[in-house]
Design a protein that fits this description.
The complex is a heterodimer.
Chain A lengths: L1 E8 L4 E7 L1 H4 L7 E5 L7 E9 L4 E7 L3 H8 L5 E2 L1 E6 L10 E7 L3 H13 L3 E8 L8 H5 L5 E6 L6 E2 L3 H9 L5 E5 L2 H12 L5 E4 L15 E4 L2 E4 L6 E3 L5 H8 L3 H15 L4
Parallel strand pairs in A: 8-9, 8-12, 9-10, 10-11, 12-13
Antiparallel strand pairs in A: 1-2, 1-6, 2-5, 3-4, 3-7, 4-5, 13-16, 14-15
Helix pairs in contact in A: 5-6
Chain B lengths: L32 H4 L12 H8 L9 H5 L6 H9 L3 H11 L3 H7 L21 H14 L17 E5 L3 H12 L3 E5 L8 H4 L8 H13 L3 E3 L10 H5 L6 E4 L5 E2 L12 E3 H10 L17 E5 L3 H12 L4 E5 L11 H9 L3 E3 L2 E9 L2 E15 L5 E5 L5 E4 L2 E4 L3 E2 L3 H4 L25 E3 L2 H4 L4 H19 L5
Parallel strand pairs in B: 1-2, 1-4, 2-3, 4-16, 6-14, 7-8, 7-14, 8-9
Antiparallel strand pairs in B: 5-15, 10-11, 11-12, 11-13
Helix pairs in contact in B: 2-4, 2-7, 4-5, 5-7, 6-7, 8-17, 12-13, 13-14
Chain lengths: 279, 484
């Protein structure tokens, strides 16, 4: 069992959770993920680390309440425990020798963009962060980003309730156009990563994306997380989660992410019927 | 060859009991195909005590028991059957467990027809003694006893040495049990949330109930084996860390051959296309057949095509049937004679309505709106024998055809998982990524041993167990004071 040592609600449906896991915390690197089960009979879900402390022996992750598992998670408190936490999984994000970088964090993707940006700053990269969300309420970790030695923090919301009224691709395009960046990384919904990749491609600016395919074991055993990159099949869990965004087949990724939509709705409905909760 | 006279009849044992060969082999009761193909309960029901005694009485108790040589872990088959004949079941269990700590598992999944039973003297003129069924019956007899009456193999005096075992599948469990008998402290590291490896995620409930696996693992814990789930060695700890900071004196790697293979044909990443590993893991480990009571879903197809001819393909096909598929096709590029699956599995699959499409090789997977709709296959014919001695399939031009399906499962084998090797640079690998180990399991890295599928590639449960036991003996020698 893994004891919960921290919870924080970041917005209406977005939560941060910290768990005691010293062995994992000692190894975690930016861009890597964990797999957890909330309880017996629960599914295994992958979540990328948002923060960790090797000294204090905890790891943190951020999740959006969308289905049964994330609903259950959102109800847990400090002192409760998760049945299973495994990690760190996946290849860490490449942060060395990048020069001038733009890191795009869209929605909950900001949770991954934060440790990645921090790691890049630590090795002397010049980092511009573009934080995007539908509206100001959904914007997360702004204070944490402001505490980093960034070159610039650009905020863009769909409705203009915070920062620019723009999609994240608008400032990204400007940075490419003005020759202000040598590389980029995009983390967020697949559709956002797809357009970030397309935007940077026309300027020949590399764009790494952190993919979030469906997984079961997370160690390469099942192959549920197959993605096509440059015409080759890769496993998101052991070959990724980071890939060259210019080579990823995003249409296939999005199609594969939707395969269990009906089942997920059913599980969620059953859960709400049983616990008769309203959230 | 042993103790058999010119006519092929065995030399009479010390206590001749009857004319055993005239008694037919005792059938094992099983549920009818109609009934069993609708649920996940066990297909075969096991012997009753009367059946076990009747079957045991067929054993000739040969002076030189050839069956023992046929067993990869050399169980003293003659003596444990003797125990059943004498009605001394606890003694029989003790003899069995002397060599095999997991009899209820092996009694169910070992290919006895190619091993001990093939070596039984009775097999020459008729049907061999049903050794596997007797092993299963004894194992289950022991599991049904109250804990204090169960046979827990004796643990050796504390050696002061600690061994880390990576993987809780057949190789790791066998190695762990053996190491405890030598008195070494053992921790088994498992990456999943449940123990058993392929016994848990791979082999279906209807062939190997999970409570049996858990009970046999529980007995190892009774022997003092520590089990640590949710640890990925290679990620959470490296092997070097296990041997330094974590204080282990030796390591056994039994993490299995992990990565599922695909064919590299168009359409393989369509929704509804599974590796057998994923399909079976969802159903067995995650219990998707109980969805939504269990949280993990699985795509339940109406028309399912399974590609492959091994036991895993049979398991996947029979599982698909139980999930409610109207039609299940088994697509194999050779013929039934060349299929590597056990005859019993093939027989059960056919009884349950799995349709065999032989001499078919998948060429392309068709889809619509992201979901699989069919499989285009090449018609094959058998040509000259290949390196494996099996006649190799050759494509018949111009005879491609389509099989309609909404689910497709690839059961064409696995390859080595690179996760562990990537973080253990001084571990020598074969060209295909498997760990190089000598006949005792020793690898190129000091104090590190390996066995099972990660050394040999996909094989059987009992071969992996055998490798685990051999390595345990080598580890014991290595740990002895003054040894190299």
């Amino acid at each position: 069992m893994f004891r919960i040592v921290h919870t924080r609600q970041l917005s209406d449906a977005v939560f941060e959770m910290g768990v005691e896991a010293p062995a994992i915390a000692a190894k975690a690197r930016a861009g890597q993920f964990l797999i957890l089960r909330v309880a017996e009979g629960g599914e295994r879900i992958p979540l990328t680390f948002s923060d960790w402390s090797a000294e204090e022996g905890w790891i943190r992750f951020i999740f959006m309440r969308v289905g049964k598992t994330t609903h259950q998670l959102s109800h847990l408190q400090v002192g409760d425990a998760l049945t299973d936490v495994v990690g760190p999984l996946g290849v860490p994000t490449h942060t060395e020798g990048l020069g001038r970088v733009a890191v795009v964090g869209g929605g909950v993707g900001a949770a991954v963009a934060y440790p990645v940006s921090r790691a890049m700053c630590d090795v002397g990269a010049e980092v511009t962060v573009i934080l995007g969300a539908r509206n100001a309420d959904l914007l997360i970790l702004e204070d944490e980003f402001r505490a980093l030695p960034l070159k610039e923090l650009i905020i863009a919301t769909d409705d203009g309730s915070a920062g620019r009224k723009d999609l994240v691709t608008a400032p990204l395009k400007e940075l490419c156009e003005s020759g202000a960046i040598d590389a980029s990384m995009a983390i967020g919904p697949a559709i956002m990563m797809k357009f970030c990749a397309a935007t940077t491609k026309s300027y020949d600016v590399p764009c790494v994306v952190s993919l979030n395919p469906i997984m079961v074991d997370g160690t390469g055993m099942c192959g549920a997380c197959r993605v096509t990159v440059g015409g080759e099949t890769k496993f998101g869990c052991v070959d990724g989660p980071d890939f060259d965004g210019h080579l990823v087949d995003f249409e296939e990724l999005m199609s594969r992410q939707r395969v269990y939509t009906d089942d997920e709705r059913l599980a969620d409905a059953e859960y709400h019927r049983e616990c008769s909760c309203t959230t | 060859m042993h103790d058999v006279d010119d006519t092929g009849s065995p030399v009479p044992p010390e206590k001749p009991r009857h004319k055993p060969t005239r008694i037919p082999r005792t059938a094992m009761p099983e549920r009818g195909p109609e009934e069993r193909a609708r649920d996940f309960d066990e297909v075969t029901l096991g012997y009753t005590e009367e059946m076990a005694r009747a079957e045991a009485s067929r054993c000739l108790q040969c002076r030189n028991a050839t069956c023992i040589d046929g067993c990869p872990v050399n169980i003293d088959i003659k003596s444990f059957i003797g125990g059943i004949i004498d009605g001394d079941y606890h003694e029989a269990v003790a003899i069995l467990k002397e060599r095999n700590a997991l009899p209820s598992i092996c009694g169910r999944v070992c290919p006895q027809e190619e091993q001990c039973e093939a070596a039984c003297v009775l097999a020459r003129k008729g049907e061999p003694v049903a050794i596997g069924r007797l092993e299963r019956w004894l194992g289950d007899f022991d599991l049904a006893c109250e804990l204090e009456h169960r046979c827990v193999p004796e643990v050796g005096p504390d050696s002061g040495m600690r061994v880390a075992v990576i993987g809780s599948g057949p190789a790791g469990l066998a190695c762990a049990g053996e190491l405890r008998r030598f008195g070494h402290a053992v921790s088994v590291f498992e990456s999943l949330h449940a123990t058993g490896g392929v016994l848990t995620y791979g082999i279906p409930e209807f062939r190997l109930p999970k409570h049996i696996v858990q009970a046999e693992v529980g007995l190892l814990e009774e022997m003092g084996v520590e089990i640590r789930c949710d640890v990925v060695v290679g990620a959470t700890y490296t092997i070097d860390e296990l041997m330094t900071a974590e204080g282990y004196d030796a390591v056994f790697i039994g993490n299995g051959a992990g990565l599922p293979m695909f064919m590299g044909i168009p359409g393989e990443n369509l929704n509804g296309v599974y590796s057998a590993n994923e399909f079976l893991t969802r159903v067995n480990l995650m219990r998707a057949y109980e969805f939504p009571k269990a949280d993990t879903p699985v795509w339940r197809g109406r028309k399912v095509a399974v590609v492959g001819g091994g036991n895993v393909a049979m398991d996947a096909a029979r599982t698909a049937k139980r999930l409610g598929a109207e039609e299940v096709f088994l697509v194999y590029r050779r013929t039934e004679d060349e299929m590597p699956a056990r005859k019993e599995e093939v027989h059960h699959a056919r009884e349950e309505g799995v349709e065999f499409k032989m001499l078919c090789s998948p060429a392309e997977i068709l889809g619509k709106d992201g979901f699989v709709t069919g499989l285009v296959a090449n018609r094959m014919e058998l040509g000259e024998p290949d390196a494996s001695g099996r006649r190799s399939p050759v494509c018949v031009l111009g005879q491609d055809f389509t099989i309609d399906c909404d689910t497709l499962i690839m059961a064409i084998g696995t390859r080595a998982n690179p996760l562990l090797a990537q973080t253990t640079p001084d571990l020598e690998l074969s060209s295909r990524g498997y760990i190089m180990a000598d006949e005792h399991g020793a690898t190129s890295k000091r104090g590190v041993f390996a066995g099972g599928d990660i050394v040999t590639g996909s094989a059987t449960v009992i071969l992996a167990m055998g490798a685990g036991k051999v390595a345990a003996r080598a580890i014991d020698r290595w740990l002895k004071p003054g040894a190299e």
